[in-house]
Amino acid sequence: MTEPDEPADALRPLLFSIAYRMLGTVSDAEDIVQETFLRYQRALADGTRIESTKAYLSAVTTRLAIDHLRSARVRRESYVGQWLPEPLLTDDGKEDPAAHAEQADSLSMAFLLVLERLNPVERAVFLLHDVFGYGYDEVAGIVGKSEANSRQLASRARRHLEESRRRFDASRQEQQELAEKFFAAVADGDVDRLVETLAADVVVYGDGGGKAPQWMVPIAGVDKVSRLFAAVGRQMRELGIRLQPREVNGQPGALVLDSDGRITNVFVLDVAEGAVQTVRSVINPDKLHHLGPVADVRALMRELRSRPE
């Protein structure tokens, strides 16, 4: 058995980061990292010479993610409603501020959704080089392309991304302050205060996956969105549901918890130019179990409807 050049377990966070950005799903990313380590252990047992543990594990993770993404695209074509990435909490305090600023944009749901426009290999090349800092020679070896071809793929991916990639110009503190105002207005059901926090062309997206009640089409415009969230706030008060502000995918957000502390859904905000530009709500229970116990939202809605006027 060959001896590894560096501790493999120390690379788990990097491998998860690659897989999650490739797929936008926490559970699948965790499965891929687990499979990567199984293959690594088998390779060591077989006497395979591994010159760089990082290079080997990165290559296996990326190739597994590419294969998985190709099959996932077929499943997403039949997905009920709007597909959103699985929310990832990023305020655990493990990242230093500089690392957070560098990585938050590439973790945002807005960015992950823009990545959906790229084919799997383009996505891998762009992420490995532009986000994780791998050299083109390393990238070429991982994706099985020439170095020149890898450069072309990265350049093409950048052009696609720049056409629709939103930059978040607000500082982390400014984002958090505006999010606090927004969520306080939601909790109070205050339309006027909601209007003060929202961009004129604000858009709301919901992901229920057909497994929980959710908005099936985007809701746009400050008037509609402010009234929508005022109504959401009233329902929350009637059911004893509360908002717990958290940072989600590097952006301001909140866990929505029922009276027993179970998660009903997760809100994520895009903040730019001093206003909330986009609100995304993930309520599909399959996308929330990694965050904790999940509430039965349909049962909560039945309870609400059964109450006397």
UniProtKB/TrEMBL annotation:
InterPro entries for this protein: ECF_Sigma-70_Domain, NTF2-like_dom_sf, RNA_pol_sigma-70_dom, RNA_pol_sigma-70_ECF, RNA_pol_sigma70_r2, RNA_pol_sigma70_r4_t2, RNA_pol_sigma_r2, RNA_pol_sigma_r3/r4-like
Keyword annotations of the record: Sigma factor, Transcription, Transcription regulation
Start and end residues of each RNA polymerase sigma factor 70 region 4 type domain: 109-161
Molecular function, one GO term: DNA binding
Biological process terms in GO annotation: DNA-templated transcription initiation
Domain SnoaL-like: 180-270
Domain RNA polymerase sigma-70 region: 10-73
Family of this protein: Belongs to the sigma-70 factor family. ECF subfamily.
Subunit structure: Interacts transiently with the RNA polymerase catalytic core formed by RpoA, RpoB, RpoC and RpoZ (2 alpha, 1 beta, 1 beta' and 1 omega subunit) to form the RNA polymerase holoenzyme that can initiate transcription.
Name of protein: RNA polymerase sigma-70 factor (ECF subfamily)
